[in-house]
């Protein structure tokens, strides 16, 4: 898919070493935050934790933070917040779509039932809001994004023909917010936040295009848009200084465009 380039395709494990220590801190913080006070919910939360995916969204938060400063507790809270929002969305989606499989495992709704899945998703959303309730800038950013994601899902259910608008709302805006709140957490300047915001939006669109191709959905338009969008996404990184974090972001773009699962 990538033509006229010498960029090698790296695995996610090869990309994350610059934030490996911070990613371990995130995993510990995320696991602790997921704990519930009652056994029924705690059982579901343990299942969610054991069924975790690539952690791509927290990785975006951590990389964006480290691009501009030092990762701190606010960064870890932001990364945990987005992973909880993402997990809640997936749980609710599986109920709506009646999906019994998620990441090669039984979905929460298949394992625990529809009602428990809805309540677990609601629990994650509430815990996520509590986590950053005192950080109004990050909270406002994420509330707007969460509302837009719901609109994107409804657009898709209504069979809207605006493909780019749908994938922007349902996927790309959350990726964009990951980058924005990561930068915010280390006090990045407004211009820096805008630059990384542009990267996150393009990256999210690219990610969903590849996802659609892998899932056999919207293949024609996704295949048509993806090559040019890959170049646009790489171009958004031209404004940042050359560091190992910038290299990791570039490698992440290529991984996203070439992944097979």
How would you portray this structure in words?
The chain is 75% helix and 2% strand. The chain contains twelve helices and two strands; from the N terminus they run H-H-H-H-H-E-E-H-H-H-H-H-H-H. The protein has helices at residues 12-15, 20-34, 39-50, 56-68, 73-97, 108-112, 114-131, 136-157, 163-185, 190-215, 219-235, 244-258, and strands spanning 101-102, 105-106. Strands 1-2 form a two-stranded antiparallel ribbon. Helix 2 (20-34) packs across helix 5. The longest helix is centred in the C-terminal third of the chain and has 26 residues, at 190-215. Mean pLDDT is 93; it is low at 1-6.
Give the CATH class: Mainly Alpha
CATH architecture: Orthogonal Bundle
Q: Terminal Cα separation, in Å? A: 15 Å
Rounded mean pLDDT score: 93
Weakly predicted, low-confidence segments: 1-6
Q: State the major sheet.
A: 2 strands, antiparallel
* Class of secondary structure makeup: mainly alpha
Characterize the overall form: globular
CATH topology assignment: Farnesyl Diphosphate Synthase
The count of DSSP E runs of length 2 or more, i.e. the number of strands, is 2
Query: What's the SSE pattern?
Result: HHHHHEEHHHHHHH
Domain tally: 1
Gyration radius from CA atoms, angstroms? 18 Å
Query: Mind telling me the CATH superfamily name?
Result: Farnesyl Diphosphate Synthase
Alpha plus pi helix count: 12
Strand order of the largest sheet: 1-2
Q: Roughly what percent helix?
A: over 70%
Residue share in β-strands? under 5%
